[in-house]
Amino acid sequence: MLLALTDKRTGLANGFLLLALVAASLSSMSLGTISVAPLDVLGSLLGKADPMTDFVVKELRGSRILAGLLSGAALAVAGCLMQTLARNRLATPGIIGIDNAATAFAVASVVGIGLSLAPSAMALAGAAAATSLAFGLAGANGTRGYRFIVAGIGIGAIAGAATQVMLSRVAIDAANAAYPWTVGSLNARSGHSVVILSIGLVLAAILLAIINRGLNTLQFSDAVAIALGTRLRAIRILGLGLSVLLTGLAVSVCGPVGLVALLAPELARTLCRPGKVPLLASGLAGATFMVLADLLGRTLFSPLEIPVGIITAIVGSPYLLWILLKPSNRSLT
């Protein structure tokens, strides 16, 4: 009976988060400098609206909502994975420098420094380089313990400084083109990068479904997990690789949007059944956070737009301080 109740709780949590995501998306399509009635939004989605409404709902707002939804889900799942592997609530891609490194490589591509690869490929390369370097500096601890986090913070600081140096040494037009990658923005995102991110999310979902049981055993000691049949090394390498993949692809779409990877998994763990890694709930929560943050950025001081990365930083920073000042003993999984 207890198992049934706890499984029902997870299902209800996922259902609630899905409804919240739908409501946030419909609100974002409806609200803005040009308001569109909710019924007209639904009509546009069903192909029964006038051309102007279709343009506002689908072209202007729908594309950025899709980009926000996918990138928010990717960042949140990457954060949940990283926290699970490190067994530390602070071990998220943004805090350990993966976001900044991916951004630095993407900016290098935009401003024409180094290899002239697509921003998505460069962002992936930056994320992988930062993770490998942090992993190497952590030594025998791997992703475990604070040494990994401290190494990542240092790498992120260096990558952030490199980004600023690059922007200061190029023409103003090139710097303006790269600027959205430095603050996190969903404005005029590349459709090509969004397609690549969606493919990456589907691939990650398939692989995570395969290793889900192994991830759940990481809440126990290594000896217990091995006794339960978990191939720890394979699970950790694959989990870390998926976290890097999702982070790099998300940054190539929206830039370094901070703290989504921290807030979404925390909310998911609060709502879902204890003892499990809430990957689906984290993805839904991250997508909802991103869409709501973008909505606030567009409407709060309209027609002036605030980048989504600034909104998430303002909202998430007090919670990060709360974690640092009042650590919780609750299990991550």
Automatic annotation (TrEMBL):
| Protein keywords | Cell membrane, Membrane, Transmembrane, Transmembrane helix, Transport
CDD domains in alphabetical order: TM_ABC_iron-siderophores_like
The question of whether ATP-binding is a record keyword is answered with: no
Signal peptide residue numbers? none
Q: Does the keyword Glycosyltransferase apply?
A: no
Q: List, alphabetically, the InterPro entries matched.
A: ABC_BtuC-like, ABC_transptr_permease_BtuC
- GO CC list: plasma membrane
Membrane association type: Multi-pass membrane protein
Q: Name one GO biological process term.
A: siderophore-iron import into cell
Q: Where are the transmembrane segments?
A: 62-82, 94-115, 121-141, 148-172, 192-211, 237-265, 277-297, 304-325
User: Pfam families this protein is in?
Assistant: FecCD (PF01032)
* Compartments, as annotated in UniProt: Cell membrane
Q: Which family does it belong to?
A: Belongs to the binding-protein-dependent transport system permease family. FecCD subfamily.
* Name the record gives this protein: Iron complex transport system permease protein
Q: Which organism is it from?
A: Marinobacter persicus
**Lineage of the source organism?**
Bacteria, Pseudomonadati, Pseudomonadota, Gammaproteobacteria, Pseudomonadales
